[in-house]
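Sync notes, pocket subgroup
Present: LS, DG
LS reminded everyone that the earlier model was apo-only. Rerun requested with adenosine-5'-diphosphate included. Inputs:
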Amino acid sequence: MTATAVRPEWGAVPDQVRAYIESRLGAAVAEAQTCGGGFTPGLAARLLLADGNRVFVKGIPDEHPMASVYREEARITAALPESAPGPRVFWTETSGQEAGWSLLCLEDLPDGNPDLSPGSSDVRAVVDTLLLLRESLTPSPIPEAPQMADVHGSYLCGWAELAESVPADLDPWARRNLEHLAGIEKGWLDAARGSTLTHGDLRPDNMVMSGGKAVVIDWSYLSQAADWCDAASLVPHLILAGHDPASAEQVLAPLLGLVPDPDVVTAFAAAFGGFWERSSRNPAPPNVPHLRGYQARAAEAARRWIAHRTGWV
Ligand SMILES: Nc1ncnc2c1ncn2[C@@H]1O[C@H](COP(=O)(O)OP(=O)(O)O)[C@@H](O)[C@H]1O
Ligand SMILES: [Mg+2]
């Protein structure tokens, strides 16, 4: 996976934080490999310890604006049932009292982000993982998780916002169909209500292969939803990896077949496509230089998906 995040190297982490991590690990760090995937600017490193063990550690200073996201990830990941295809949690530090950093120590998963390109054996493994997520996370192990429709519904209206002030560089297909897109982008919200704990940010860089299985990592956003939502959100990522929209849908047919009404999937595609289209035009957040380019590519994949489903020209 190409580097996307700008992260501190292990050696750049303050001495007292490294000492705290090593005290929790019970061994000194012999080698550290910074992980490039993802977009947050925190520490994410695979560590080889002096005792021969390996772990993965993620962390960020408590005063950083994203620290609450890291703390939420620690809470959700620790609550995943053993049957779910998530990483084993060794320990977390979220009190903010010891190290002054929020930390998450996970089992080290050795085989890198899955390759979602057509013909890759990882694709089958990812579909198996999605089926297992659905089974193991329904009903949600965190019953008080808010509904995805309530958490995201209010801001997934990118096409309506773009229609109010149409950017000069808007893709011609999107420009021609802007009113239609704005008209459907909220049509998924009622059908998305459900009791499956959802990841909400499923992408190849939020999965890691281990022993032929795809493990889902980076559980940063607490929500529950209908059991097809995470699968539907992966369609644009299959397209980005080289599938055409029909083959991406075919790959995910065992899960997309659960959606009661095809228009709901089209509306879901429009909601995320509009979000990416709109967000890609925002200024980059501090220390996150690659996010907007990724959103522009994701928006293009979503446009292709919507065009395939609607036949709009
Ligand atoms: N348990 C793990 N074992 C090995 N590598 C991991 C593990 N967790 C994450 N990674 C690697 O680190 C990258 C960033 O991790 P992630 O939790 O997604 O960070 P971010 O919150 O910045 O997106 C992942 O894309 C993956 O390559
Ligand atoms: Mg990530």
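DG: The longest helix spans residues 291-310.
LS: The chain has a mean pLDDT of 95.
Action: DG to write up.
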